[in-house]
Automatic annotation (TrEMBL):
Basic and acidic residues composition-biased segments: 220-232
Keywords: Methyltransferase, Signal, Transferase
An individual GO BP term: methylation
Keyword Methyltransferase: yes
GO molecular function: methyltransferase activity
Superkingdom classification of source: Bacteria
Residue segments, region Disordered: 220-241
Protein name stated in the entry: Methyltransferase
Signal peptide feature range: 1-24
SUPFAM superfamilies cross-referenced by the UniProt entry: S-adenosyl-L-methionine-dependent methyltransferases
Length: 251
């Protein structure tokens, strides 16, 4: 019955083809309320067309469900980019939740970018855009989930991955979740982060576990076996192979 409720709720979005992931931890955490909130986020008419055009490749409904996002959560989002997931997270957590979108401190000087992101925050009403050092920040509330998508390899390049992991651990409540999605380069360790803008998921696991987290699950929703992993995602003609990892701060 629970699987049927999840599938029916997520299918409310015509842009989303639903296959419930066979992950016991995820299934146990999802309620019909959460599934409805995710479906409403994907179907949100405030999302720009350039975002919804990417949904087929990014599978936001599946990814948000796997990450453990639910209504009422306080979420930290590292490097929100243009706000693709910021909008989805804001809508999913709803008016009783909050999203702290952390952007690199250098972005504060890019007025056009900050204006766009602050307009997004005003549109949703439960988002704060915070230029900050990822390894040294203080939020008004302890968070339920920390999130980063397609950025972790850049954190490694900039020397902020380990500080961000430690800061996320400190900012999360006991039992809080840390979600990382990125372009995959299996077996390369940290050697492809700059040259190919990809990273080995095993290297991410090692770094995040070293910060105190426990590995809590992996989704293959974004896995593409046809990606040879030998070019940057922008140079690859198809959709890049991506991994999605979930970690947990011990209770």
């Amino acid at each position: 019955m629970k699987h049927a409720a999840i599938a029916a709720a997520l299918a409310l979005s015509g842009a989303l083809v639903v296959t419930v992931l066979p992950l016991a931890a995820e299934d146990a955490a999802i309620t019909t309320e959460t599934a409805n909130a995710i479906a409403a986020a994907v179907a949100d008419t405030m999302r720009p067309a350039e975002d919804t055009a990417r949904d087929e490749a990014r599978k936001p409904g599946k990814i948000i469900a796997f990450a453990g996002v639910r209504p009422g959560m306080v979420v930290i989002e590292y490097s929100p980019g243009g706000g693709y997931y910021t909008r989805l997270l804001a809508k999913t957590v709803g008016p009783t939740g909050h999203v702290y979108a952390l952007v690199p401190a250098g972005f504060a000087g890019r007025q056009d970018y900050m204006d766009r992101m602050n307009a997004l925050a005003a549109q949703y009403g439960n988002v704060d855009i915070i230029p900050t050092d990822f390894g040294n920040y203080k939020l008004p509330k302890m968070a339920d989930l920390a999130w980063t998508s397609e950025n972790y390899h850049d954190f490694v390049n900039g020397g902020t991955a380990e500080p961000a992991d430690k800061a996320a651990f400190a900012a999360l409540k006991p039992g809080g979740l840390y979600f990382i999605e990125d372009h995959a380069a299996p077996g390369t360790g940290l050697t492809a982060t700059n040259s190919l803008h990809r990273i080995d998921p095993a290297a991410v696991k090692s770094q995040v576990i070293a910060a105190g987290f426990v590995f809590d699950g992996e989704s293959d929703a974004l896995h593409n076996p046809d990606d040879p992993h030998d070019a940057s995602p922008r140079q690859f003609s198809g959709v890049s192979d991506k991994f999605a990892l979930r970690f947990k701060k011990p209770e």
